[in-house]
Fold:
Amino acid sequence: MQTNTLKMIVNSKIKKQILMCAPTYFEVTYAINPAMARTLACKIAVNQFKAMEQWTGLKDIYTKEGFDVVLIDPVKGLPDMVFTANCGIVNDGRAIIGEFKHAQRKPETEYFEKWFKENDYGIIHIKEEFEGTGDMLLWKDNIIGGHGVRSGLDGITKVAKFFTFLGRGKDLVPVKLVDDNYYHLDTCFCPMGENALFYPKAFSADSIEVLLEMGAMPINDKDARSMLPNGVYLDNGKGIKFIASKISREWRNALEKLGIEIILNPTSEFQKSGGSNRCLTLFL
Ligand code: ARG
Structure:
């Protein structure tokens, strides 16, 4: 039996794993999204101590909830490596990795690829633009793929083919992102079991229709700006939880009615770079 097959069996019997990267070198030195541009224009600095505290807060929640958090070493000069969600997507012990859109993040790939190799993952590297689980989320037996800002339609289509090929048999639902402020799917769409939240203004008219038809619940401008969709939905057999950096009373009530417990973990420092809890997380 191959090592990675064995590892998968062992892992699935033990604990679900999450890949994170410590914010040792996290800062905002370039702008590839509007939040970063605002941070630079207003000369707002990242508070390194607070960033480490917020990241550790998230890591501790995962550990407490029964997940096994594994770490990749941060690399000096690659501040966005903390956002592990974007390096690829993992399916059955194989990592599917694409190209980052922006030159500033391209060098991260080499380090993530090395980590996956050293940890016995199979690697499928495609040359199309694809920013991992930032732009691809599974929902109700479908692969929801966001394209138009970072990942390309060709990228998400190719990755979805590998999913089918690898035996998951899920269909791709491509959705088009049209607002640079919501540059990844996980900034404006969040699957929650059978339910999902989404921010309509971030999507094309056709995609809004598709998501509404599938039963996604629209959120307003304020909830979108507070990065509500970048929260993390956890269903680990110990009750359903949602990790949010901030949540309006309205959504807290609505989610609690659905039996979802809210766990708060503020992410002010990472929001200076356009990211929150979900971006700091890669489910393996
Ligand atoms: N500064 C990062 C970027 O623009 C933030 C990435 C956030 N990640 C996410 N999954 N939305 O690429």
About this structure: The CA atoms of residues 24 and 49 lie 9 Å apart. The chain has one domain: 2-283. DSSP finds nine helices and 15 strands in the chain.
